[in-house]
Amino acid sequence: MTTLNILTLPDKRLKTLAKKVDVFDKDLQQLIKDMFETMYDAPGIGLAATQVNIHKQVIVIDVSEDKDQPLCLVNPEIVEKKGEQVYEEGCLSVPNIYAKVKRADSVSIKAQNETGKSFELTAEGLLAVCIQHEIDHLKGIVFLDHLTPLKRKMALKKLEKNKF
């Protein structure tokens, strides 16, 4: 397995729209393994292929305390949102920046696993937040895009300052 390079803001490749996966082969399965290794190594709880400069609709997630509940979502699609929650989010592509983001409290999704088998899932709380956050990455959206212009500007300024 390989640890992949994670893109960070202001890298424009984070704005690239991910394409639907239609080939479920050994290369895809290797990508998923490498993404899990990269996410665990970072350490993070979610990673979208866009963040490692691979523009396919692939997400890996593990919100468990012991990092023993890996979840892979290929071609994920939110089919229903319920409720509302505000959660302080961070992102491997926006290091050391955290901000409160309003998202649905519960989401129902359709997705495929690493072999192409379709499934449905309803998630709440942190898992729901993580799924929404990672699906945003596939659409070229980072969590800072959900902030007010002033808060976004302050976060980007802090990000620049942290680089030096």
Description of the molecule:
With 164 residues, the chain is of the alpha+beta class. It has a single domain, classed as Peptide deformylase (Peptide Deformylase, Alpha-Beta Complex). The chain has three helices and seven strands. The protein has helices spanning 26-41, 125-138, 149-162, and strands at 46-48, 58-61, 71-82, 85-91, 94-103, 106-112, 118-124. A five-stranded antiparallel sheet has the order 1-2-3-6-7. A two-stranded antiparallel ribbon has the order 4-5. A hairpin with a 2-residue loop joins strand 4 and strand 5 (94-103). The longest helix is centred in the first third of the chain and has 16 residues, at 26-41. The chain is globular and about 45 Å long. The mean pLDDT is 96.
CATH fold title: Peptide Deformylase
How many distinct beta strands? 7
Element order: H for helix, E for strand: HEEEEEEEHH
CATH class equals: Alpha Beta
Outline type: globular
What percent of the residues sit in helical stretches (DSSP H or I)? 25-40%
Superfamily at the CATH H level?
Answer: Peptide deformylase
Overall structural class, as computed from helix and strand content, comes to alpha+beta
- How are strands sequenced across the largest beta sheet? 1-2-3-6-7
**CATH architecture assignment name:** Alpha-Beta Complex
Radius of gyration: 15 Å
Low-confidence stretches: none
Q: How many discrete domains?
A: 1
Please report the distance between the alpha carbons of the first and last residues: 31 Å
Number of helices: 3
Biggest sheet features? 5 strands, antiparallel
| % residues in beta strands | 25-35%
Mean pLDDT: 96
